[in-house]
Amino acid sequence: MDTIISKQTLFGHFSGQSTPIQQKAISDWLEHPESLELYFLWLEEWERLNPQFQADEREAFAQLWQQVQAFEEQQTTQVVDPPVIPLSSPVRSVRWTWLVAASVALALIGLTAYLNRSFILYRTIATQFGEVRTDTLPDGSVVTLNANSSLRYPRFGFGNRTREVFLTGEGAFSVQHTQSNQRFVVKTGKGFDVIVLGTEFTVFARQRGAKVVLNRGKVEIDYHRSGKSQQLTMQPGDVVALDKQGSIQKTYTKRPELQAAWQQHRYVFEETSLLEIATLLEENYGLNVTIRDEALANRTISGTYQATNADQLLETVTQLLEINYNRQNDTVLLFE
């Protein structure tokens, strides 16, 4: 018969109040892969109900792992000659060993589950170099990721308890408005968050900096300057850029939709330098681009061009500038 674990039993276990017998039952229950999602769903609920609990999980699991190793060493190095014990002891000894083994098994399962916790609690959408992908999130919002980008969002409760997503790279969003007016938040890891209700916008968050372009609706940028939280409200057409130093700049564009032309594999250049295009090739296609001299790197291109892969973009750029290129695998040299 399969083991059934209730929410109350796990809540007690999370509080450190489970008995060895309950730990054995939880250990058996966690052997079923489908139990892990429920385990972390209830763990997330328990943590919300117990916000005062601020455990250092890494330290706790480091100590737990040390205890597991100590137990294993004890089993392999114990004295061979058994002591003289009463006849009634073997049953008690076997039961005690069984309970200790169950505790160790639960600790090992817990450690494995902890290491995979992010995978269980979050879903991740990702694109490879040169790939563009569109997905619909559980709340009905639509996101299109540019090449070499990823989006992570909660597996449980998205659209009900939270609408926070974590973006690396570049993505275009069409956010679904909810009856409860719940905020949709894009976190970038670049020192700013994009907060919206229902709108269309593009977020760029890569190593060289970050940028938000608003197509329609209204969004709020939450960023930090000199250790203080700052807010900036954007209107359609606004472009907000954040450099590596944390300096923020707001400009305006009459055609914000062109900032997300990459969704149709189109590239829009407005006095764009060859150095910037080389960086784009590195970010979107994983190429290592070298420009032979500084004067060439500063030459610019304007216009809209179609390219579905790196070679097409290289051919277009080099023909426009009347220059040459040499590509060896992922290494590209641009020269006159």
UniProtKB/TrEMBL annotation:
Residues 266-333 form the Protein FecR C-terminal domain. GO terms for molecular function: sigma factor antagonist activity. Pfam families: FecR (PF04773), FecR_C (PF16344). The chain crosses the membrane at residues 96-115. Residues 124-220 form the FecR protein domain. Keywords: Membrane, Transmembrane, Transmembrane helix. This is DUF4974 domain-containing protein. It comes from Rudanella paleaurantiibacter.
